[in-house]
Write a structure and sequence with these properties.
Length: 379
């Protein structure tokens, strides 16, 4: 391993679990991030301060380093353009990752909406709309880029705040009532390792308020979701890498819609904490080992545990004076999420996750305890 190196696209807070695991395995680290203060650079053997989305520019700089070290892998825990960059570099460096064509089109959220959600996709916003509708910003990830609009008045107000020349980038869909599910796994041409199905609960602002793992699906619905996910991966030619598929299982019809496909070691502590807590799988380590050709276990042993993760959002960004928990002291693990792109406050708080783990048979008790739990943020 002495002269073998990994390229990691993104050196921010959410990439640290991947960065630390690569370091643990004795591999050298080449880290790419446009932020000169990115925390991942502390672990880097070689730092490339550059836009993570400019894959051709990054390749030129990586090829210079390839004369010094043997690059055996490229990976990311970031989303959108970082996934495209990772695929492009892997193809040029002849390492394993998702093929470039698939990486390119699954990051096109409008393409995904039209292809898989045709009966709820709204092609022309100037025609009559049946509210509520969901508006998605393709430039943002997760709930940050999703907005539920309840009326035409609210919609017109939104349009007035946007440049109409750029409005066509937004994706509009009919709002669907149903279960929000997250399918997590690792795939190669030889095997598919399914880590499990998580369930996400959202508030009226389309923000995540709770994630539980495993989901509350019954056996029949679980089979339906797994079968659909396997067909989806085949249809988009998903040939290698970790994945997160977010689906909506519509109430009553049992029809499935695709909310998002992410081809990376998704954050929110799912890969780092949630899956290794409830199963014997360690997705980050397994992804690295699969890239470098080491064998991993193809099956997942599930423990008799239940994982619940509650989300707290501050009323405003600003300096944090004090944070304290009420109603569940001593039982909750608290994890902050960090926004690297906002510079006008310290610490860089985005939101917090409170995590509670217990025996699956105590699921109701765990959720009740988490419901009583309050986070106070004094600014």
């Amino acid at each position: 391993m002495l002269n073998k190196a990994f390229v990691v696209i993104g050196g921010g807070y959410h990439q640290l679990p991947l960065i630390r695991e690569i370091k643990k395995q004795g591999l050298k680290l080449i880290i790419v991030d446009k932020n000169v203060s990115a925390p991942g650079f502390e672990y880097a053997d070689y730092s490339i301060v550059y836009d993570s989305y400019d894959y051709k520019g990054i390749l030129k700089r990586v090829m210079v380093l390839a004369k010094k070290v043997n690059i055996v892998g490229v990976a990311t825990q970031a989303s959108r353009g970082a996934i495209i960059t990772t695929s492009y570099l892997a193809s040029k460096l002849e390492t394993k990752w998702l093929n470039f064509k698939t990486a390119f089109f699954i990051t096109d959220k409008k393409f995904i909406s039209k292809k898989f959600n045709g009966d709820i996709h709204i092609n022309n916003y100037q025609k009559e709309l049946n509210f509520p509708i969901v508006l998605k910003d393709p430039d943002l990830s997760g709930s940050m880029g999703v907005l539920k609009i309840e009326s035409k008045k609210e919609f017109d107000k939104f349009i007035k705040t946007k440049n109409l020349k750029n409005f066509n980038k937004f994706i509009l869909e009919k709002f669907i009532e149903g279960k929000h599910l997250i399918v997590l796994g690792l795939k190669t041409n030889e095997f598919l390792k399914l880590y499990g199905i998580a369930e996400k609960f959202i508030d009226n602002k389309m923000r995540t308020k709770l994630v539980i793992f495993p989901s509350s699906l019954d056996r029949e619905d679980s089979k339906l979701v797994v079968k659909y996910s396997e067909q989806l991966l085949r249809e988009i030619n998903f040939d290698f890498g970790p994945f997160m598929i977010e689906l909506i299982l519509e109430n009553g019809t049992k029809k499935l819609y695709v909310a998002e496909i992410e081809a990376s070691l998704t954050g929110s502590h799912f890969m780092e904490i949630m899956i290794p807590t409830v199963t014997d799988a360690i997705p980050i380590k397994e992804t690295i080992n699969t890239i470098i050709g080491k064998k991993i276990k193809k099956s997942v042993k599930k423990f008799d545990l239940f994982y619940a993760q509650k989300y707290y959002y501050p009323n405003k960004f600003g300096k944090i004076k004090k944070i304290f928990i009420e109603g569940c002291e001593g039982d909750i693990k608290l994890f902050p999420h960090i926004r690297e792109d906002i510079k006008n406050y310290t610490p860089k708080l985005y939101f917090f996750n409170a995590v509670l783990v217990g025996r699956y048979l105590r699921k109701k008790e765990i959720l009740e305890k988490l419901e009583r739990c309050n986070l106070n943020i004094i600014q």
